[in-house]
Amino acid sequence: MSPTADATVPRGRLGVVQGTALYIASVLGTGLLVLPGLAAEAAGPASIVAVLAVIGLSVPLAGTFAVLAARYPDPGGVASYARRALGGTAARMTGYWFLFGVCAGAPVVAVLGAEYVAAVAAIDRAMVPVVALAILVPPFAANLFGVRVAGWVQFVLTALLLAVVVGVVSLAAPAVQPQNFEPFLPHGWGGVGTAISLFVWAFAGWEVGTHISGEFRDPRRAIPIGTAIALVVTGVCYLVLQIVTVGALGDTAGDGAVPLLELARLGSAGFGPAAVGVIAAIVALGVMNAYLAAFAKLGSSLAANGDLPRWFAAGAESGAVPRRALALTGAVVAVYFSLMMWAGLDLTPFILVHTSSMVAIYAVGMVAAVRLLRRGTWGWWMAVVAAVLCAGMLVLAIGSLLPAALLAVAAIGVTVFRQVRIRRARRQIGDEVRRAGASNSRVSP
């Protein structure tokens, strides 16, 4: 029996459940541990308005990425959309920003999780790097077996995370006092603006799904469903946490580094430290697991397009495991981790590299979406709104865009190098043709 057309095209194996878990983990990240307290400190009870505003702002961004991923399932993700709409150099920039820029956040996540675990378990801070390495190993191991295995691992991690969050909120809810919501605007609307800027980073992560879009069995169905569920779940989690944080902790909400610990202690002094330790570990593992799948698929896609050495291209096709690109990701993470150790675990420079690269990716991705999607459709209008929002984010992040600019220069350098090689090859071919013509003219009668 001859194979059908469908049989010759590799299909992904992710379903709605695993995909949704990966989406939730990429968005409901380490911000869960610190942002409710920081936002309450900046805006007081009005921080609740900030959460609602950012949920609204997330809709066009997440919706645009969902439309693009469903229509163009490709491991290159945003880089592939940039290639289609803006050309090879823009695609290379976007790919480098994600693989070599956003990747700086991986050791940050591991160290953050390790700091919380060490604090809760009363482990000497000198052991934080060891705990961080222990957090890094399981996601790499899971992704060695492919996105499907990583997806089921993520489903378990996400379920545990949501269960612990529900538990902490349930314990603290009886301590909510109506008087803690007054005055509602203690720092004016400027404080709300500050809280919004904080929560923008909490709701980043929607681009991760674009890199694993080809791993879905039915991307046109699963990706929109997964995105919608993740929007609702992450939005509800942050909103409920913010309401309980403000209502239960009042003016002291921003005093501690880990407001979840204080919330848990309100209901159970013994459960509190254990809960925060579990949350920190689950968040770090979950975020790493989701992002590593995206990094590996992108690396293999960049190699397949000639933007990285071809050796890393193995595993770019749907359903395959990009182990070589995963090894490259591990090497990049190891470099950043070593630099972080050398800097005395100072996370700020690495967070700036991560965030500046994310802003640049979003801006290019939305411009590409405006050009790719059919004008006048819901997807196109969401892309237009998201592009305007991303322009505002670029202005806010202007002071930290140097790392992204350097990676862009590297991408342009590759383009120039290629053009020089092409011109040189053409000149050599022309010289050989002329020499052959001259030789033929001499020997002809």
Automatic annotation (TrEMBL):
The keyword Transmembrane applies. GO terms for molecular function: transmembrane transporter activity. It is a multi-pass membrane protein. InterPro entries: AA/rel_permease1 (IPR002293), APC_superfamily (IPR050367). Keywords: Cell membrane, Membrane, Transmembrane, Transmembrane helix. The keyword Nucleus does not apply. Coiled coil: none annotated. GO terms for cellular component: plasma membrane. This is Amino acid permease. The chain crosses the membrane at residues 21-40, 46-72, 93-114, 126-145, 152-176, 188-206, 227-250, 270-292, 325-345, 351-373, 380-398, 404-420. It is found in: Cell membrane.
